[in-house]
Amino acid sequence: MNALSWSYVFMFYLAMLILVVGVTRKIIQYARTPAPLKIPTTPAPVTKAGVVWRMATEVVLFNSLFKSNRWIWIFGWMFHFALLLAFLRHLRYVFTPDCLIWPLINNWLVLNAGKYGAYAMLFGLAGLLARRFLVDRVRYISSPSDYLMLILIMGIAGSGTWMSFINHVDIIQLKEFVLGLLTFSPQALPTDGVLLTHLTLVLILMVIFPISKLLHAPGVFFSPTRNQVDNPREQRHIAPWARELETGN
Amino acid sequence: MADYEIPKLKEYPVIPVLQPGVSAHLKPYVAKADFQTALNFPGELVENWEQKAIDKIGELKGKYRSLQVFLDSCVKCGACTDKCHYYLGTSDPKNMPVARQDLLRQVYRRYYTFAGKLFGKLGIPGFVGAKEMTREVLDDWYSYYHQCSQCRRCSVYCPYGIDTAEISMAAREIMDSIGVGQKYCNEIIAKVFKIGNNLGLPQPALEDTLLGLEEDVKDATGVDVKFPLDVKGAEILLVTPSADFFAEPHVDGLMGYAKVFHEAGVSWTVSSYASEAANFGMFIGSYENMRKVALRIREAALELGVKRIVFGECGHAWRVAYSFLNTLAGPFDFLDPNYPVPQHICEFTHDLIQKGKLKFDKSANDRRVMTYHDSCNVARASRMGDKPGGQFTIPREIIKAVCNNFYDMPPDTIGEATYCCGGGGGLLTDDLMELRVKGALPRMEALKHVVENNGVTHMAAICAICKSQFTKVIPYYGFKMDQIVSVHQLVSDAIVLTKQ
Ligand code: HEM
Ligand code: SF4
Ligand code: SF4
To answer: Do B171 and B209 reside in the same domain of the chain?
Structure first.
């Protein structure tokens, strides 16, 4: 174990802590904040099951985005779907072959979809970035951080693709490093420049997740315009602070 | 006619090129101290208002999940940027929904997020889209949060359902809380508290008007159709926008409701105490004021001992009635549980049509070729009937039952995609005329389309604000005032009165 490996071990634990604590705190905040009025964007489902379906179409298919802008939808959906595939492919670093779900992770489909999906991810991200530069309306609403976020993720995807196609790294040693983190018995990290870049960028992404617009991922589930049942006449809906007004007079 | 350029109606809607600041000068008059204090707001800009505004953001985001989630979640994807009629009509980038939200979001980010505080300290808050609370920001708020009709069109198209209406309501409440209110809305709410309706019509004036209407209907039809006021023990309390009592074409709609009640053989009454369906408390985002206005309806219903509540044609009023009334002034367990509380007049009429209880002479409307404007609050913030989308089918089925000629405007301008009339959300005031004219552009283009392709002559609406706004602005686009009609005006013209 050299100093470099130790510092990555330390940074990973710190980033993980920030990510988990930060996102959990946000989720608790969203869940605790009352929604005092019924404000689903109508037509809205009139049952809970309907709401689950509506939410599923939003999260899986980006239904509203599909209605509003085909280009953003294509680029955005490609990027997110590829992100999911990449995530699945990375599970093989975390699980061991004696694990029950191993065949689900370590098979031809998951490994190849994740590998080639990286191109789709880069393509989608490039499209989103191009829109930010080229469409005057999107340029107007973009801050430097919006560009950097895309560049950061492109950096992650780019360095990852580089490793899977061109500059292969010692994934056996990498896996030992990851398992070491999980079992609190730190192991050495392969000292490969591309890998270190890849991991550093991932660390940055983890840290900024709870303090940036990446909160859209938990946020979408709490959006009252999408997750409320349209039944205000049938069921009285009232927030605790609003009920207090009633006892006041 | 005007000292600004009226937008040209184009064949196909065009997304305009940004013209920063072109509508910064459009701002409504500020409320005088009396009207501020009547609503429990400070009379003028308070000391240390910057900090108080920041604190108010904190308070509101703790009370409204929508605000907290919406402020955090926007990814600046840009999907909403071309969805607002005010942007399409003015080209001002701050009228793009996300840019409008950002006026508040930048302050939230500066004072309530780690990233904003950090980069604020470094002196570059703009790096993460944050900004200090300054006079310039407040001026932008006052202009652009009064250039949002809270129509929710943007929320349909946002992947997270971010509703700019929620943000602009919060912003108006923040401004009210530091003493900068809007004259039009706040005066009206004060009038409701004092007299019972937006127009300040006292009981005797209302009585006169209703008697006059009885005479008019008698002259035209020979039938005694009643317009009862403050009748105890009536079955139905009709709550309708006060514009229905005298404005054109609203009043023709009111005659329609009266004739339908007459044919249904039910007793009904208007209340002088709750002689207003509108609830401008919603426009200023004030739960307390909205509740106070809504409670008048509950009190009137109890006082008169009615069994049902029916609302007349009004868009935002129907939102407050359908979506909020039970919350604000419920529970309504003292009313007849066999009927939804409240009911829309269109639901009432539609139900009778379905049961075959109304007779129509459709040829009475043959001089009209109709189209129908979905009002935003009915379309995207409420429902009619028991199926989602009933708010689109029920009014159309009524029109088709009483008219032979009906054509819809292009699909991307109706239903959930409907464009606002340009005067909703508390902007129906003469000091915002330029904005109102420009904001009507997308609807006018859609109307022109069916006028030219289908020979449409009239557009029906079920919202008092839409009707007032259209009659005022369509002349700017070469149409005539009387091309706007109430849905129940069509019912009124075609209904065959079979009872004496
Ligand atoms: C529940 C899961 C998620 C949903 C439903 C979701 C949905 C969306 C949608 C609809 C957009 C707008 C379209 C676009 O620009 O792509 C978006 C943007 C974005 N998402 Fe997600 N997302 C999720 C999770 C994530 C995660 C885990 C990341 C982490 C890397 C992420 C990163 C981004 C970024 C960076 C953008 C902005 C793209 C741009 O700048 O244009 N998303 N997301
Ligand atoms: S609510 Fe309507 S008026 Fe307001 S920003 Fe959205 S589209 Fe524009
Ligand atoms: S559509 Fe929603 S997420 Fe995208 S820029 Fe507009 S408000 Fe933000």
So the answer is: no
Measured in angstroms, how far is the CA atom of residue B128 from the centroid of ligand 1?
17
Write down the pLDDT at residue B354: 97
Q: Is there a contact between B443 and B85 (Cβ–Cβ < 8 Å)?
A: yes
**Domain layout of chain A by residue ranges:** 42-214
Using most ligand atoms within 8 A of CB, pick from A69, A70, A80 the residue to mutate for ligand 1. Answer: A80
Q: Which atom of ligand 2 is nearest to the CA of B165?
A: 1
CA of B164 to the centre of ligand 3 (A): 10
ipTM above 0.85, yes or no: yes
* Residue B79 CB–ligand 3 contact under 6 Å: yes
pLDDT of residue B3: 79
pLDDT tens per residue, range A151-210: 999 999 999 999 999 988 999 999 999 999 999 999 999 989 999 999 999 999 999 999
Q: What tokens appear for B254 in the block? A: 């009111």
Q: Is residue B499 part of a domain?
A: no
Distance between CA atoms of residues A204 and A211, nearest Å: 12
Cα-based distances in Å from B421 to A54, A218, A244, B142, B454: 29, 35, 37, 21, 21
Q: What is the CATH number of the domain that holds B47?
A: 1.10.1060
Average pLDDT over residues B452-465: 97
What confidence tens digit (pLDDT) does each residue in A111-123 have?
A: 999 889 999 999 9
Question: CA of A140, closest CA in chain B: separation in Å?
Answer: 8
Domain count, chain B: 2
Residue A132's contacts (CB-CB under 8 Å, 6 or more residues apart) are A138, A139, A142, A146, A147, A150
Question: Are B159 and B223 found together in one domain?
Answer: no
Q: Chain-wide mean pLDDT for chain B?
A: 96
Examine the domain organization and report whether B339 and B429 are in the same domain: yes
Selection from A215, A200, A128 nearest residue A160 by Cα = A200
Question: Could you tell me if B58 and B119 lie in one domain?
Answer: yes
Distance A217 CA to ligand 1 centre (A): 7
In CATH, the architecture of A42-214 is Up-down Bundle (1.20)
Residue ending a domain, among B180, B212, B242, is B180
Question: How close A24 comes to chain B (CA, Å)?
Answer: 14
A144-155 mean pLDDT: 98
